[in-house]
Design goal:
The protein folds into two domains: 252 residues, Rossmann fold, CATH 3.40.50.410; 50 residues, no CATH class. β7 and β8 form a beta hairpin. A six-stranded mixed β-sheet has the order 8-7-6-9-10-13, with helices on both faces. It has a three-stranded mixed β-sheet with strand order 1-11-12, with no helix packed on it. The chain is built from ten helices and 14 strands. By secondary structure, the protein is α/β, with parallel strands linked by helices.
Length: 315
């Protein structure tokens, strides 16, 4: 008997479609994704701590005047009090490019409401809508295999692009064959040299490949964040009881298993180890991580998980 992935709910409304309901979109207007290091090369209104501009709206510090500098930057009030020529520096304000890369390899399927791919697309939709509301420049990429079939859209620059955001995410389908996460991330990041990269995947691959993908993000000078998406069946293999073989959704390989309590426990131990290694690959490179369980509600994602990526309410 072949084991089947029970990740979809026939007839249900997809989580992705729920993201784009008017009430949900309205609630996202009050949220922002904090970006700590990434910046772009275009003026904007995202404040980038640790980077300064000659002009801006928030004063960062004063520095000594250097001959030839624009005298309009001199703080003459300080000069009148202290007799020192000091120049104002402001917090840099930039339009930050945000790349959201969604794993659409076979392991994220099957397609449909409640699947891992539906949940990953919903996470991308939430983050994309929030970034557009915050004035960021948003790019999307579907990364099934590698450079040869990397699909993407963007830049999206305002709320008027929400339809494009929804349409692209809704067009993602699980790819046939084995994926190549590292090659796909490299293909995406050839199009940028800075900014924020959010990688959404189940990461059920060799942890060394996850670390290599994270290294690609770091080498490109980008700030990275990882979101792990799993199904309830991934977490609890009880549905496999009575099965003596499973089929790898990407490679098609059939694997024999011994249907026993010991098999289920070894599976859980291996999954815990896998998730710990993915977290280590991210945190050791300064990347925040979050977790999404397929079938979770939007409220759960916004309240419990996405804040780990820097999501916060604004007044």
């Amino acid at each position: 008997m072949a084991a089947l992935n029970r990740g979809t709910t026939p007839g249900a409304t997809s989580l992705l479609d729920r993201v784009f309901e008017p009430g949900v979109l309205s609630s996202l207007d009050r949220m922002r994704l904090r970006i700590s290091r990434a910046s772009g090369d275009r003026p904007g209104h995202t404040r980038v701590r640790g980077r300064t501009d000659p002009s801006g709206s928030e004063l960062d510090r004063w520095v000594p005047y250097v001959h030839g500098e624009d005298l309009r930057r001199v703080d003459w009030h300080v000069y009148a009090r202290l007799g020192e020529l000091l120049v104002r520096r402001f917090v840099a304000e930039r339009e930050v490019p945000v790349w959201i890369l969604i794993d659409s390899s076979g392991s994220m399927g099957p397609a449909g409401a409640g699947s891992k791919l539906d949940t990953a697309a919903a996470v991308a939709g939430l983050l994309g809508a929030i970034c557009l509301a915050g004035g960021e420049r948003v790019y999307l990429g579907g990364i099934p295999h590698g450079a040869r079939d990397f699909s993407h859209c963007g830049p999206l620059r305002s709320r008027t692009a929400l339809g494009t955001l929804h349409a692209f995410l809704g067009s993602l389908t699980p790819a046939a064959g084995e994926g190549d996460l590292v090659a796909a991330v490299e293909a995406a990041l050839r199009l940028t040299s800075r900014g924020l990269v959010v990688l959404v995947s189940d990461f059920l691959i060799d942890p060394g490949l996850v670390a290599r993908a994270a290294d690609v993000i770091v080498r490109r000078g980008c700030e990275g964040r990882l979101v792990t998406v799993l199904s309830r069946e991934d977490l609890d293999p009880a549905w496999l009881r009575g099965c003596d073989r499973i089929v790898d959704r990407e490679s098609g390989r059939v694997r024999r298993i011994a249907p026993s309590v010991d098999t289920w426990q070894r599976y859980r131990d291996a999954l815990d180890h896998q998730l710990a290694q993915v977290r280590e690959a991210a945190t050791s490179r300064g990347m925040a991580t979050a977790f999404a369980l397929s079938g979770s509600g939007i409220e759960t994602l916004l309240r419990d998980e996405l804040p780990k990526l820097g999501l916060a309410l604004v007044r």
